[in-house]
What we know:
CATH topology of chain B: Helix Hairpins
Mean pLDDT of chain C: 78
CATH topology of the largest domain in chain C: D-Maltodextrin-Binding Protein, domain 2
CATH architecture of the largest domain in chain C: 3-Layer(aba) Sandwich
Largest interface: A-B, 55 and 43 residues
Distance between the termini of chain C: 74 Å
Order of helices and strands of chain C: HHHEEEHEHEEEEEHHEHEEEHH
Number of helices of chain B: 4
Shape of chain C: elongated
Structural class of chain B: mainly alpha
Structural class of chain C: alpha+beta
Number of helices of chain C: 10
Low-confidence stretches of chain B: none
Oligomer: heterotrimer
Mean pLDDT of chain B: 86
Largest sheet of chain B: none
Largest sheet of chain C: 6 strands, mixed
Radius of gyration of chain C: 26 Å
Number of domains of chain C: 3
Amino acid sequence: MNKRRIRTILAVGIIATFATLVALTFVSNYPVPADSQQYLARPLGETGASNRVAGIYLNYRLLDTLLEVLVFSVAVLGVRHYLQQSEGMSLPALSESEVVQTAVGFLSPLALLLCTFFAIFGHISPGGGFAAGVIAASGLLYMAIAHGMKAMEARLNPDRLALAEKATLLILLAFVLSPVAIGRVPLTDLLPKGTPGQLLSGGSILIYNILIAMKVFVGAWAVIAVFAQHRGEL
Amino acid sequence: MAAIVAFMLFGLGILVLVLRRDLVIKLLALGLVNAASILFFVSIGDRPGARAPIQLPGEIAVLADPLPQALVLSAIVVNFAILALALVFVMILVERYHTTDSTRIEQEIAREIDEEETPCP
Amino acid sequence: MIARWILLALLPVVAGIALTQSRRLSAIIGMGLFSFILAAVYVLMHAPDVAITEATIGAALVTAIYVLAIRRTGRLIVVADEVPSLMAREGDHITGLEYEILEGFAREIGLDLSVRFVPLRRVRWLIAHHEADMGAGGIIHLADVEGSLCATPAHLTTAVYAFPTGKTPIEPPDNAPDYEGYFSELASHCQNGTLSTVATSLDLARVLALGRTGASLGELDRVDGAFGYAFLVAKRRTELQKDYVDYLHRLRASGRLDDMIGRYFS
């Protein structure tokens, strides 16, 4: 028995035992957390969003979401910073066959449409800003695959996009802090809640969804573009 | 049921993370661990006979617990952020050592340290 | 309910198969599939928000990022000095015997070939510092090559000419083609009279190339001995060396190498 095999068996054994123990503990009788029931017990009119998840995500626990946006921004910043230190090999951009181009001409508008839908209706139906932004970015990714990265960069100025990303983040923060101006606690939702189920309901959730969608769209696209550049071709 | 599958996936992820030496596969395994914990959280919120937590005013129905779902949404996004950064670091390592094998990278680093510590004649 | 059980049972199977793949691309695509199944499970567990986010981020974006990152590692980077008919630019693309050999080799081991042209003295440095995988462009392996590099078996025999001491052997023409690297360096050193600091000898391909540019070559003495063009590889890249030796052996056995040589040198 060589050393490596003993190590493998040990690792398998320890992890399997651990996982089984933890699983048994949880599965046998995990208590339903009492706190989480409170959210469902609260009246719907409190957030005005008929999507209860969006209500928690962007109203009761807005601070979590803001920090999540911040983490995302920091990651985008880090990706850009570290990859721009190493020089990418820029090869001529390739473009795909006509079949792919035609399919993309059909798929990309669909992706942008879905993005708009998820962002605007995030408080009524499933969806939300993050998914919307990522869908839009993948729509652009389709186009980049079909027409090449160079053509995309000619159309979308990376510097302007970076500016837009920072501007969206600042607008988001300013919007969150705006209640301070009239002497209220930050993160307070000042907008009327409306009737749940209507488009104009849920207070600020609609605005947060749209802002987050824009932010995530630009950020995700920036990550894709940097990775594509450093692969050299797309 | 789903919780058991989640723990199986968690164990599998950790196992692959420990045993395979390719850094990219290690990252994939880390993603699997993350997915397993998300699955566990979602399975907590689910109840028999429940509906998706979307409610119209005046409607009374058994809804799936929205809190774990809301918490887990952040986890997915944060997972993506971590992954993108980790991939960049792997790319930098590969650029320098021309391998994604973690053991070989460790050997290279040890060798480099040795070289630095050898005194000049 | 049955659908949920089937999908749940599929999850560990798919993950297990994906993560035991030896090819990274297969593993990544397998995990993309895993994410899609997971999204379906979330829908069946009444978590549509999580399902949408998982499908867009986990299945689409993460897979795309992985694939983009992977291609960078899947590349054979070759640094070369420009030598006509061995490895030279012709308009947008590169031609030459060495380019053809390396292209076939890269395809054989599943990598994309990427060639960068640098001056000859940079070639060795770049390989020794792991900035590139192989060095090419009329390299003749002499015994005094630095310690961390080694040469592959020669793919083409050649001759070497030494400069007679005390004379300027080459008169570069006024309108020499703009070969970067070696030739421009050679020309400038000829004019300054500092030729012996860069080179004491020239190989056949370069002599021929210089002759074709219209440079007037003075007397050159042929050096005795057998010489051959080879590629440079870092010594510790033993796998790459082994793969290449196998490939060259097969190329020679099938007679394709002689075809190529005939096409470029006839």
